[in-house]
Design brief:
- There is one protein chain.
- With 334 residues, the chain is mainly α.
- It folds into two domains: 205 residues, HUPs (Rossmann fold, 3-Layer(aba) Sandwich); 79 residues, Tyrosyl-Transfer RNA Synthetase.
- It is built from 13 helices and five strands.
- Helix 8 links the parallel strand 4 and strand 5.
- The protein binds adenosine-5'-triphosphate and L-tryptophanamide.
- L-tryptophanamide binds next to strand 1 and helix 7.
């Protein structure tokens, strides 16, 4: 809690571009949360360097991601949107929490095992302690809720364990965070393999619609979307490709899947794919226009980045000072 308000924290890495899945499944639903929660959305660049990055590329992707948050409708006056590397408390708290985390706990993390296998030539200590930094992100703001995908639930569980362990020794220091399930949109599937979710790290660019794709690219990707040979537009398990297109069309137009099925009754797949593509183009158009406008307005964006980092710095320092005192660091007389 900060004051009377519950706190929500989430972070995203600037690896790959955001997809239509991220937008319809997460971002779009986050917009209204600022009324209910005090929200912090961090671009977690400290996490990004656990795998080797090109510096210019990382800087540019991080700025695009931050801009995209705002373009998608997160008002930067109401939501604290900032770079993790601008607030030194993340690394400081992570160090302290490292000293309360067991090697065995980190050894069990499935993301570490996956990433270590993928980057066998660079299994660094940062990659191993990545979940502790994530715990620090969350606990630093006394977050009550954390919206995350399924793959991050194990890290959130570790966060809760660390907070409870710390509290058991030092008293009530940290809020114990809960995963935020809330109102989630449809799970959007890959356009090339509807048994998989649409993901920003998919190697096949035709599998995902990126939020910055231009209209021609969007239409082309929908034309190539994998469907089936049934020839009927029905919302059922046996037709996962068509079902996914119905979900996308419905999410973009605000119709129910049943209404969509009725609308396209007797129509061919070609015509339907075209309509889905156009619905996505119109949904993303305002977001893309806003993105271009914001991205060019360097002074405005820099102002937002600075103000929000200061805000994050202010709230994080409260927790950090308390923790430092609890563990026995000397009082600051400056
Ligand atoms: P990565 O490919 O790097 O794992 P991702 O695209 O799967 O990334 P995450 O960063 O894991 O996305 O998730 C960010 C948020 O977007 C989460 O809240 C997650 O539930 C949501 N999300 C991601 N993909 C989809 C999808 N295909 N459909 C609906 N929601 C999604
Ligand atoms: N590990 C997460 C990103 C992340 C995060 C966080 C999410 C870093 N710190 C704190 C929620 C809360 C990921 O890779 N999706």
């Amino acid at each position: 809690m900060i004051g009377e308000q519950k706190v929500l924290f989430s972070g995203m890495q600037a690896t790959g571009s955001l997809t239509l899945g991220n937008y319809l499944g997460a971002l779009k639903n986050w917009v209204s949360l600022a009324d209910e929660y005090m929200t912090f959305y961090s671009v977690v660049d400290l996490h990004s360097i656990t795998v080797r990055q090109d510096p210019a590329e990382l800087r540019s992707r991080a700025r695009r991601l931050l801009t995209l948050y705002i373009a998608a409708g997160l008002d930067p006056e109401k939501n604290c949107i900032y770079y993790q590397s601008h607030v030194s408390g993340h690394a400081e708290l992570a160090w302290i929490l490292n000293c309360f985390t067991y090697m065995g706990e980190l050894n069990r993390m499935t993301q570490f095992k996956d990433k270590a296998a993928k980057h066998a030539d660079n299994i660094n200590a940062g990659l191993f302690t990545y979940p502790v930094l994530m715990a620090a992100d969350i606990l630093l703001y006394q977050a009550d809720v954390v919206p995350v995908g399924k793959d991050q639930l194990q890290h959130l569980e570790l966060t809760r364990n660390l907070a409870q362990r710390f509290n058991a020794i030092y008293g009530d220091v940290f809020t114990i965070p809960e995963p935020y399930m809330g109102k989630t949109g449809a799970s959007i599937k890959s356009l090339q393999d509807p048994s998989k979710k649409m993901s920003k790290s998919d190697e096949n660019p035709n599998a995902s619609i990126y939020l910055t794709d231009d209209p021609d690219t969007i239409i082309r990707k929908f034309k190539r979307a994998v469907t089936d040979s049934e020839g009927q537009i029905l919302y059922r398990e046996e037709q996962p490709g068509i079902r996914n297109l119905i979900d996308i069309y419905s999410a973009c137009t605000g119709k129910t899947p049943e209404e969509t099925v009725r609308e396209f009754d007797g129509k061919g797949y070609g015509e339907f794919k075209m309509a889905v593509g156009e619905a996505v183009v119109s949904t993303l158009r305002p977001l893309q226009e806003r993105f271009q406008q914001l991205f060019q307005d360097k002074a405005y964006l820099d102002g937002i980045i600075k103000e929000n980092a200061q805000k994050a710095q202010y709230y994080s320092a409260k927790t950090l000072r308390k923790v430092q005192k609890k563990v026995g660091f000397p009082e600051r007389l400056f």
